[in-house]
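wait is this the right file?? whatever heres the structure
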């Protein structure tokens, strides 16, 4: 073999190297896209769905609002007692295919479990609800009016206060 014979120069960019570079570039794009999506702001207001899953729409109440009914999601039943100054969570979940809307709120209070239970029981009776069930431990009240259901669960929170969970199911 003659060393002086010209051979074609080997290219650094052979087929396996080019394929590997494209794969790395593709992975880099996927990783960067995920980072951009996870850090993009997503303000949630009462009129903006927080989550939409299988045609179910969830709205969050505006806990940053001043104490009052503005902290509850739009449409929350006004006759359901909620201490909005100590509201921990409020949601509205729409099930359009089933014709249902569920409102829920969680708050704490300095009132005793018995005081809260008596307040809800008398409020439901006054508003024409039929109490369908009561459970002692944890305290639970289930009531119904015009096909709509409301349930209240009352327990002692870690802070020593009383925590109240209220769920209202509106059957349209």
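ok assuming it is, sequence goes like this
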């Amino acid at each position: 073999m003659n060393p002086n014979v010209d051979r074609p120069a080997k290219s650094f960019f052979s087929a396996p190297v080019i394929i590997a570079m494209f794969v790395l570039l593709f992975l880099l794009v996927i990783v960067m896209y995920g980072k951009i999506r996870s850090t993009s702001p997503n303000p949630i207001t009462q009129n903006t769905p927080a989550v939409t899953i299988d045609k179910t729409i969830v709205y969050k109440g505006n806990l940053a609002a001043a104490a009052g009914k503005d902290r509850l999601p739009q449409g929350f039943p006004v006759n359901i007692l909620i201490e909005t100054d100590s509201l921990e969570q409020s949601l509205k979940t729409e099930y359009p295919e089933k014709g249902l809307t569920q409102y829920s709120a969680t708050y704490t209070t300095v009132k005793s479990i018995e005081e809260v239970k008596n307040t809800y029981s008398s409020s439901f009776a006054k508003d024409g609800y039929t109490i369908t069930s009561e459970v002692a431990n944890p305290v639970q009240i289930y009531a119904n009016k015009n096909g709509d259901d409301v349930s209240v669960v009352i327990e002692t929170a870690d802070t020593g206060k009383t925590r109240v969970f209220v769920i209202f199911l509106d059957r349209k």
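The chain has one domain: 51-171. so i think its the right one actually
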